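Sample log: Histidinol dehydrogenase.
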Amino acid sequence: MKIVELNEQTKAEVREKFLNRSPKQFGEQEAVVKQIIADVASRGDEALFSYTEKFDHAKLTKETIEVTEEETKEAYAAVDPSLVEVIRKSLVNIRSFHEKQKQNSWITTEEKGILLGQKVTPMEKAGVYVPGGKAAYPSSVLMNIVPAKVAGVDEVIMATPCGRDGKVNPSVLVAAKEAGADRVFKIGGAQAIAALAFGTESVPKVDKIVGPGNIYVALAKKAVFGNVSIDSIAGPSEILVLADETANPRYVAADLLSQAEHDEMASAVLVTTSRSLAEKVNEEIEGFLQVLSRKEIIRKSLEGYGCILVTDSRREAIDAANLFAPEHMEIVMKDAFEVMTKIRNAGAIFLGEYSSEPLGDYFAGPNHVLPTSGTARFFSPLSVEDFVKKSSIIHYSREALEEIHRDIEQFAKCEQLTAHANSIAVRFEEK
């Protein structure tokens, strides 16, 4: 990885490259996505089956589009029982963490008959998209379904691509069953997002769509937003490690590579106060690249979006980390907890040399669906709150309203909304 001194110029250059990985201009893909969405919205199942055959080379019908109980049983038979146990252990941690996020409705009462409150209501239907194709992501199944189930969503609908044989990856199916998916459909890509957003003869319309995917899935989610809610438009994965001379360079190198292996646009950045550590980390990276299976992807990721920034002070390192607002941030420094208090922008923060990023991906419990591409400045991880709605509750007695009705009328008249003022005034007309 390239080692550079941190200054205003290098900081700006690296940040620009870091942020520009996200899709900005994809006119050709956007046009394709819009056509697919319009087609599925218009022709329903017919279009859905056609696109599945075109893109996934699988022939589906109304009888085969949804995963059956028999197919789920087959999946359990195909998955190593030890992996099933690992999934169940992970689920315990994920549920426990998300249970702590639950919010309750509340009401306050005041004198003279004033009652104010907030009603928290789960969504009726949530759609979870799980990528397929080159890899299987049972961890994403757990992270997207569990908060919805904890929130109390009535029905969680999962969509994931099938293979040419019309089968869904067994580990993904097992994870879906264990997490509590109510229905699973064998559809992928922009056509799956359209089906969830508008509904077809076979696929129910949902209220919200969550989950990662390729550029076509991301653009489709963006296009249907407003008709349904979405979690976010996810960009390539990223990690930023904050480290000083106390950090273990082998651990730091391994953690940087854990994200670089995702794809060629993934970003791995080390910000350190130690030039010696920077050089040792680079040596360790070269060693790992001799043995890791995805070394070609890793090399391209590091060449395009990897960097080691060396700074003179901890304060400068922290400021740089907050500027990047990374999806994953590891702090491997003296007084890591004290440093953490100065972090304003990060999707997830991992503290200490034994809190490696994959711990959050698979097992610790906090959600691994995180804001990317600098959006941690204003977005948060996927949570139970993403699957509920909040309604305000207002009740005033006549006595309570009488005391303040002229104030409301004056406010309304100030805005020239006389019907608003009248709506209050008629309640106090002289008989």
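Observation: The chain is about 45% helix and 15% strand.
Observation: The longest strand covers residues 114-122.
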